[in-house]
Amino acid sequence: MFEFQIRKADIRQHRVIPIDAAADESGLTDGEVLVRVERFAFTANNITYATMADRLGYWQFFPPAGDDADGWGVIPVWGFACVIASRAGDIPVGDRLYGYFPPATCLIMKPVGIKPQRLIDGAAHRSQLPAAYNSYSRVAAEPGYDRAMDDERMLLWPLHITSFFLWDVLQDRQWHGARQVVIVSASSKTSIGLAYALNVDVDAPVAVGVTSASNLDFVENLGLYERTVAYDALTDIDADIPAVIVDMSGNVDVLGHLHAHLGENMRRCINVGLTHGSETGMGEGVIAERSEFFFAPSHIQKRVKEWGADDFGHRTSTFLRDATVATRDWLTLKTIDGLTGLAEVYPEVCAGRIPADQGLIVKL
Predict the structure, then answer these.
(1) Rounded to an integer, what is the distance from CA 295 to the centroid of its chain?
(2) In which band, very low, low, confident or very high, does the pLDDT at 20 lie, cut at 50, 70 and 90?
(3) Is the separation of the CB atoms in 187 and 211 below 8 Å?
């Protein structure tokens, strides 16, 4: 059994190490289950988790295994796992779960709050972490569950749920008075999900995509953006139109130039991800007082309380399925063989060199 780890101080450093874990029920305590991770998606979103881990607590989900684990961390991933041993009476062997897992071959969990379609990992070290990340779907009990959508689900749903709630919070704030939403790193899958949401909302401002010159054709051909500009042509964006910026890149130089160009018409800048690396500070020209960091789990918890679980589930699942189907014309899934395969492609993900139309699925 193995685990993929990265250096906290330099996320470009990584390793695959053997881990000690129960192979059957004899290694579990009462109430625990052992799951075998079957497959998971790996995207630039996972690099954001690593970059923001100290600030947002992502290192706490899955403490690294091994005697020399000091300084190493485990990046959470979204995927599917199967229960292979159980000392939790309500969770049978063979139950399949979808949710947050380590990039590892196995995980010991302590299910609580068990319901026919859902459970929570009640491990003590996770008790103070966002509830949305501790909840797991028992997929066999889901109405209309389609196993054929597993790869798309673990790749896109964690990204598109952020897209949905970005659209929701912008709509809730009346778009900050903007008439255009400028999306930086427009080729990212979260950006595309937001552009889809804006495109199908007849009351939404138009979406303007900012991307690299190499991705211009791809982004334009999506048909979701009113217009697309390259990073070296930011002044092509109409500064006379009030704008909200949604930034998925974390590129402070781009943001500084964009804020300066839009000036008073830059009504709000919402910082979401870090597709271009680990730049997290405020750069020259950035208008800090009109900028904020968007943390999706907080908004999700707010809406669950306001809408109720059933309405929340209906709204989000409908959007997620529709947005996923809309990707099938352009998205290519690439299967990666095991954790050693992940180690080989990991530097490319860190450097942002995975093609925009490709999704990585790690099969264990």
Answers:
(1) 11
(2) confident
(3) yes
